[in-house]
Amino acid sequence: MADIDGLKDTKNFYPDIPAAHDGFHLKGAHQLDWGMRNRLSRVFRPATGRTVMLAIDHGYFLGPTTGLERIDLTIVPLLPYADALMCTRGILRSTIPSTFGNGVVMRSSGGPSTLKELSNELIAVDIDDAVRMNVSAMAVQVYIGGEFETQSVRNMTTLVDMGLRYGVPTMGVTAVGKDLARDARYLGLATRICAELGAQVVKTYYCDEGFESVTAGCPVPIVMAGGKKLPEIDALTMAYNAVTQGAAGVDMGRNIFQSEAPAAMIQAVGKVVHELMPPTQAFDFYLTLKRERENAAARK
Predict the structure, then answer these.
(1) Is 116 marked active-site?
(2) Is 53 helix (H, G, I), strand (E, B) or coil?
(3) Given 203, 228, 229, 300, which residue is catalytic?
């Protein structure tokens, strides 16, 4: 029997060494539960605190977007280069291999198509299904200034409450309508509201002036939305500016899967996000990978 009289006490509690109390690699997340931080670590690389998220959820209101007609052929080959994938549960179940081990951010709001008022969304996923599919986070559109602003905010807070119950983070996605300016004042308002009401991550657009004030004023990580298709050098420059001004990564879709060389582009974006590679150098990297792919195809 251990610790009886006469036996030497060999225990060592290292009283001269304080217990380690490591911080966390994402701002605003150090007081979250273990499970939620573990899920966030699947989305954001612990080594850099940033992410290259591949957004392919466009079909939930746009239908078969150009580049997403056959996700099994165009997107699945890109998965090895993505830190996380943003998609709908329908695509996750039907098309994404269950061997994909990085983060999944599941689109969890929806309703209207592009033919209707987009801000009239409702929650479109039950938390039990999100947990069943082992997703890393849930994404919900928030239309600050939109016709159904309060309803969309309520969608987000409902998901936040459910997510806290099960340890699943919620990402608030700020939506910019046709009549809303995509400037630092609006983006700062929208992102701060999402964070104040409980979102653990916020996705928003980049703006040329004052973006650093948007990221500084948001107490949780901001992920930059890629937006419409740009020339590759412009997209890489936007990503570089965003992360050097405080963004915790990018969530790009069309600027990757509509590129002439999607695999080369997502790898170049990764260089910018995780290594802070300057845009011109990253563009050269993209061109090199693109040429190698073209040469390999020519030899076949």
Answers:
(1) no
(2) strand
(3) 203
